[in-house]
Design brief:
- The protein is mostly beta strands.
- Helices cover about 0% and strands about 60% of the residues.
- It contains no helices and ten strands.
- The protein is rod-shaped, with a radius of gyration of 25 Å.
- About 25% of the residues are buried.
Length: about 160
């Protein structure tokens, strides 16, 4: 089951778009009395909501997991923006005694060359030696026309000369 919540923050003159999604994984081993619960949470941010054609889009955020003590987490996050898919997080400490894993991640992409409304698609995955899950989210953004630069008016210098 995946949970979803959205938030939009205003920071430094530009709107930062942020989303949170979770993966909750359960596994039943042997008899039904031995259940393993694991969860992964991804906080995802685009550095702003509007981009000009070809501008850099920055994706960043945090992740965390919780699970039982005899498992090790493997967490991943891929992002697809403008037809390009990149893995921006692989977290694999391979540590049986680590019950939680957290950190930050980031990646960069290039905005489309044509104005319009688009989506950044992010897919998170979680796996340990007993349970696994996958969840995804789409975050909207817009490619806008660059603001035209109006050149200053020409400077005209007039000089007067005496007439006779």
């Amino acid at each position: 089951m995946a949970g979803l919540a959205g938030v939009s923050l205003f920071a430094g003159g530009r709107e930062v778009r942020g989303e949170t999604f979770s993966i909750n994984a359960w596994s039943v081993l042997g008899d039904s009395d031995y259940n393993i619960s694991s969860a992964a949470t991804f906080n995802v941010n685009l550095d702003k909501t509007n981009y000009i054609p070809g501008e850099t889009i920055r994706v960043s955020g945090t992740y965390s997991t919780t699970q039982c003590s005899n498992t090790w987490p493997l967490e991943g996050l891929t992002a697809t923006i403008n037809g390009t898919t990149k893995t921006i997080l692989v977290a694999d400490p391979y540590n049986y005694t680590q019950q939680s894993l957290s950190g930050t991640y980031s990646g960069t992409f290039i905005a489309e060359s044509v104005r319009g409304s688009y989506y950044a698609f992010l897919q998170g995955s979680f796996n340990n030696n007993f349970a696994s899950g996958v969840s995804s989210i789409s975050i909207p953004y817009t490619v806008i026309s660059p603001t035209p630069v109006t050149p200053p008016p020409p400077t005209v210098t007039l000089t007067a000369s005496p007439t006779s």
